[in-house]
Amino acid sequence: MGRRSVHPPSPQGAVPGRFRVVLLPLAMAAAVAGCVAPNLPRLPAQVPSAWQHAPTGAGAVAAPDLRGWWKAFNDPDLDRLVEQALVDNLGVRQAALRIGAARSLDKHTYSTYLPQLGFRTFAEPAPDNSASYFQFGFDSKWEFGFFGRAESHARVTAGELGITESEAQSARVSVVAEVVKTYVELRGAQQRLHLMEQAASLARDKVDLTATRERLRLASENELARARAAQAAAEAALHEPRLAIARSRQQLAVLLGRDRLADDFVAERAPPRLGGLRIDSAPADLLRTRPEIRRAESEVLKAAGELGLAEADLYPRLGIGGSLTYAARVIGHTRLSDADGIVTFGPAIDIPLFDWGARLAVVDARDAALSASVLAYRQAVLDGIAEAETALAALEQQGQRAAKLASGVTGLEGSAESTATLTRLGLADGFDRVAASDALLQARLELSQAEQERSIAFVALYKSLGGAPLPPHDPAATAKGEP
Questions:
Q1: Quick one: which of 378, 386, 445, 436 has its CA closest to 412?
Q2: Cα 37 from chain centroid (whole Å)
Q3: pLDDT (0 to 100) of residue 480
Q4: Rg of the Cα trace of the chain?
Q5: Spatial contact of 147 and 290, defined as CB atoms under 8 Å apart
Q6: β-bridge mates for residue 161, sequence order
């Protein structure tokens, strides 16, 4: 403390000490230059060459782009809702902030293995308690990151960034799917309410007709009672679509980051309709678009980095360190001068010797975690394929069901028109007209439900495929060649 270090002159032909301390870590660096992080495991694709349940048909059209698949509904209100949700949804905004945090850390991954410089101050008494010194100075250290430590550290941060990015894209996929699904349910509930109000009106007409017949002694009181009960049931059933409308509007408000929607924000419209579809993408595209698979891939990268760090901990940490310390006497007396400084410089070596096998246990644990992450990746691929195949099958079946019901509605529309004509000509009574109209309304209700379920199956399909817009101005996505 406060003393200058004086080195004796070197013998003739010997390397000076100040050069030895520099050459030693350089020689060790050359010796370990070939030590790198362990190789990344190979991730099997495990995807079939084609979809088993892809829709077919001569009238099919190409599937919409994964980044704008909801536009297949050709509904401006829906487009506006999706765009607004991608901006205002609180989950998407949280995910964007997490991406920014992860990228800040990833950007400085190698900063740990660059020269570090710090300033410090502290007070310390002389060994004989004769004086007190205030010390301040600079410390520097440069850890080389040998034995794969730097590369493994980079893998960990890159894996964490990939996990964060996949979570953000998963949030966008879920938000888009939920907005479209909720919108479809809202429109379907509005249409059901309209049809069921017509059914309730027909039930009232039937009550009036039955009451007239009962006064004319052409119907019994029991028939009138049954007609009134049917009317009450039809009017009571109106609560279901009204509740569905209120629930859907509230869900849309939450998805848009609001507490409620304005009354005119989603005006009543006809439900969106889909045309014929086929899937042009291959199952292998899931490896690129499905966030769950990309997250599993990033988990493997992170686990490989953690294994590399555990293996690097079995070897010495090598670097160069130095300091410049200046001491000034505050109080007391000593034979030293009132102020003095000292410079130190040399290799920084931290060699693990004996720890009862703790570091080897960490290596074994990290190796097992890496193997588990590879299996989790394989599981994510299988789950993605299964979900997409199930959604494809559901979409195909719901399409066939809707087509059959539409054919039935067409037939009942002709029957209702014929009955109405006969009623005007006096060849049929009001009961025939009510019965034909009620049958047509029930068929239309069933068709409306089938078309809604087909649209929801379409949403489920593109959610399983990872369909959603990428974040705007995403440099990571650009670097990965995303469309």
A1: 436
A2: 30
A3: 43
A4: 38
A5: no
A6: none
Residue 151's contacts (CB-CB under 8 Å, 6 or more residues apart) are 36, 37, 145, 308
3-state SS of the chain is CCCCCCCCCCCCCCCCHHHHHHHHHHHHHHHCCCCCCCCCCCCCCCCCCCCCCCCCCCCCEECCCCCCHHHHHCCHHHHHHHHHHHHHCHHHHHHHHHHHHHHHHHHCHHHHHCCEEEEEEEEEECCCCCEEEEEEEEEEEEECCCCCHHHHHHHHHHHHHHHHHHHHHHHHHHHHHHHHHHHHHHHHHHHHHHHHHHHHHHHHHHHHHHHHHHHCCCCCHHHHHHHHHHHHHHHHCCHHHHHHHHHHHHHHHHHCCCCCCCCCCCCCCCCCCCCCEECCCCHHHHHHHCHHHHHHHHHHHHHHHHHHHHHHCCCCEEEEEEEEEEEEEEEECCCCCCEEEEEEEEEEEECCCCCCCHHHHHHHHHHHHHHHHHHHHHHHHHHHHHHHHHHHHHHHHHHHHHHHHHHHHHHHHHHHHHHHHHHHCCCCCHHHHHHHHHHHHHHHHHHHHHHHHHHHHHHHHHHHCCCCCCCCCCHHHHHCCCC
Q: Taking a C-beta distance cutoff of 8 angstroms, is the pair 249, 266 a contact?
A: yes
Per-residue b or e along 265-283, where b marks 16 or more CB atoms closer than 10 Å to that residue's CB? bbeeeebbebeebebebeb
Could you tell me if 37 and 148 are in contact, meaning their C-beta atoms sit under 8 angstroms apart?
A: yes
Residue 11's contacts (CB-CB under 8 Å, 6 or more residues apart) are: none
**Residues with pLDDT less than 70, the chain:** 1-36, 45, 54-64, 126-131, 262-266, 275-280, 330, 332-340, 428, 472-483
Residue whose entry in the numeric block shows the structure tokens 């109209």: 437
Closest CA to 339 of 328, 352, 355: 328
Give dist(CA 129, CA 333) in Å, integer: 9
- Contact status, residue 157 vs residue 112, Cβ threshold 8 Å: no
Cα gap 366→314, rounded to integer Å: 13
Structural domains in the chain, CATH included, are 35-466 (1.20.1600.10)
Q: d(Cα 466, Cα 385) in Å, to the nearest integer?
A: 12
Residue 469 pLDDT: 82
Nearest residue to 362 (alpha-carbon basis) of 440, 308, 411: 308
Select from 442, 82, 55 the least CA-distant residue to 275: 55
- What pLDDT is recorded for position 404? 92
